[in-house]
Amino acid sequence: MRWTVLRHFAISCLLVATTLQVAARTRPHYGGTLRVETAGDPWQKPDGVARRFVFDGLTTFDARGAVRPALATDWASDDADHRWQFRLRPGVHFHDGTLLTSVNVVASLNIACPQNCPWTAIHAVGPYVVFTADSPMPNLPALLATDEFLVALTISSDGKTPPATIGTGPFQFMGAKGGVLSFTAYESCWQGRPFVDVIEVRVNRSVRDQWLDLGVTKADVVDVPVESLHMAQQQRLDVTVSAPVQLLVLQVSDAAPLANPLLRSAISSAVDRIALANVVFQKQAQVSASLLPQMLTGYGFLFPTERDLNKARSLRGGLPSPQLTLRAEGDGAMQLAAQRIALDLHEAGFNVQVVRPDAARANLTLRLLPLEGSSPEAVLDVLLRRAGISIPTIGDDSAALYKAERAILDQHTLIPLLDLPAGSASSSRVRDLHLRADGAPDLAGVSLGDAP
Question: Does the predicted TM-score (pTM) go above 0.85?
Answer without folding.
Answer: yes
